């Protein structure tokens, strides 16, 4: 089971965050130095990284998928590189969605592999070279902005405007992965997702530093209506409230919810309980594509739950429909300069 982020990370900084501040200071020094000083490996294709400032979800995976679709529209062959978070495989692996299960490669890798060739690798450099060998013309990294392993040609950092950066403290006192100043220095653009104001200060800081600001919204796919239906929503993602808002946006009358830790693998008892509770109250079960990916390929209650559940798929919709193509063009421009400056 994947551990759950402490709730105090997403509240105004209290005694827990301040008590952990000495550890956050040390963590920040190490993370910042690694980002600033580590020598990065280069690969012979452009690399776009989709990251975020904090631990937890902000919409990286749907953003990466939107970029891959834009790349394919341009006639390119993109490939995804991810760690396979939540999966058990610790060797570099090309994901086969018809063969692999989420407990081996992670739920996000399965979603990515539906769109383009996907490699999971604990070593990002090795994984990038695997993608190049398999013919990728553009690498899109889902996460890894702070890891400082690969030379990036474009770093798009996604921020949820309702959660922002939580209490603003670095791990372990808060969700921030590295000093904000260093992260802003190294990012190429921010993707502001949603209609909240929790990210406004950070977005202004990035804009003053001359960084691009893009705006987008997570939107349910067309044809997904729950109008007038009483539903029981369950999910194991970093921000379950975001999903419950999505269910309401497509007309679902939320009669019950159950939240689990991010990337959670449901036990048989949990799955049977969900089925029984929904059946008893006459409710429609609804969940996310990531949760459905963790059910796929399993037997017993998982099969029954997957048959019974309505899956709400979402896409990242950029306000500027040309923004993904512009990001790809900028990555290729920077890649060409990199090749001229230092041949690979």
- Placed side by side, the strands forming the largest sheet appear as 3-4-2-5-1-6-7-8-13
Give the proportion of residues in helices.
Answer: 25-40%
The biggest beta sheet reads: 9 strands, mixed
CATH architecture of the largest domain: 3-Layer(aba) Sandwich
**Percentage beta strand:** 15-25%
The top level CATH class name of the largest domain:
Alpha Beta
Assembly of the depicted chains: single chain
Give the terminus-to-terminus CA distance.
41 Å
Helix and strand content put the structural class at: alpha/beta
**How would you sum up the global shape?**
globular
Keywords: ATP-binding, Kinase, Lipid A biosynthesis, Lipid biosynthesis, Lipid metabolism, Membrane, Nucleotide-binding, Transferase, Transmembrane, Transmembrane helix
Function: Transfers the gamma-phosphate of ATP to the 4'-position of a tetraacyldisaccharide 1-phosphate intermediate (termed DS-1-P) to form tetraacyldisaccharide 1,4'-bis-phosphate (lipid IVA).
Pfam family, one: LpxK
Protein name: Tetraacyldisaccharide 4'-kinase
Describe this protein's structure.
With 344 residues, the chain is an alpha/beta fold. It has two domains: 7-218 and 317-341, 3-Layer(aba) Sandwich (Rossmann fold), CATH 3.40.50; 222-312, Rossmann fold. Helix content is 38%, strand content 20%. The chain has helices at 15-19, 21-37, 60-73, 102-105, 107-113, 124-133, 180-186, 200-208, 240-249, 268-281, 289-295, 301-308, 323-341; strands at residues 47-52, 78-82, 93-94, 118-120, 138-142, 154-160, 189-193, 212-220, 230-235, 253-259, 284-288, 310-312, 314-318. The strands form two sheets. It has a nine-stranded mixed beta sheet, with helices on both faces. The protein has a four-stranded parallel beta sheet with strand order 10-9-11-12, sandwiched between helices. β9, α9 (240-249) and β10 form a beta-alpha-beta unit. The mean pLDDT is 94. This is Tetraacyldisaccharide 4'-kinase. The chain crosses the membrane at residues 15-32.
């Amino acid at each position: 089971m994947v551990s759950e982020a402490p709730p105090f990370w997403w509240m105004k900084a209290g005694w827990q965050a301040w008590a952990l501040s000495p550890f956050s200071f040390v963590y920040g020094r190490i993370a910042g130095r690694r980002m600033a000083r580590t020598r990065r490996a280069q690969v012979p294709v452009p690399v776009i990284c989709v990251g975020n400032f904090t631990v937890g979800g902000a919409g990286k995976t749907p953003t990466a998928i939107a970029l891959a679709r834009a790349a394919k529209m341009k006639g390119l062959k993109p490939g995804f590189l991810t760690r396979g978070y939540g999966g058990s495989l610790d060797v570099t692996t090309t994901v086969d969605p018809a063969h692999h299960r989420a407990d081996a490669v992670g739920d996000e890798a399965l979603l990515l592999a539906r769109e383009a060739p996907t490699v999971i690798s604990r070593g990002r450099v090795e994984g990038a070279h695997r993608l190049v060998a398999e013919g990728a013309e553009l690498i899109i990294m889902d996460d890894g902005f702070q890891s400082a392993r690969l030379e990036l040609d474009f770093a798009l950092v996604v921020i949820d405007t309702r959660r922002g950066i939580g209490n603003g403290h670095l791990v372990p006192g808060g969700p921030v992965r590295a000093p904000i100043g260093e992260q802003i220095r190294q990012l190429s653009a921010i993707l502001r997702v949603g209609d909240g104001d929790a990210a406004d200060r950070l977005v202004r800081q990035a804009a003053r530093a001359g960084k691009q600001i893009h705006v987008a919204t997570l939107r349910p796919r067309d044809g997904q209506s729950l109008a007038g239906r009483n539903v029981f929503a369950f999910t194991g993602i970093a921000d379950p409230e975001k999903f419950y808002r999505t269910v309401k946006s497509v007309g679902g009358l939320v009669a019950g919810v159950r939240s689990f830790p991010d990337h959670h693998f449901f036990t048989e008892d949990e799955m049977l309980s969900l089925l029984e509770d929904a059946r008893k109250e006459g409710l429609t079960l609804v969940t996310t594509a990531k949760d459905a990916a963790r059910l796929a390929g399993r037997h017993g209650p998982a099969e029954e739950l997957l048959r019974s559940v309505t899956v709400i798929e979402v896409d990242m919709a950029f306000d500027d429909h040309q923004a993904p193509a512009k990001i790809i063009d900028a990555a290729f421009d920077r890649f060409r300069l990199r090749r001229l400056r230092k041949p690979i």
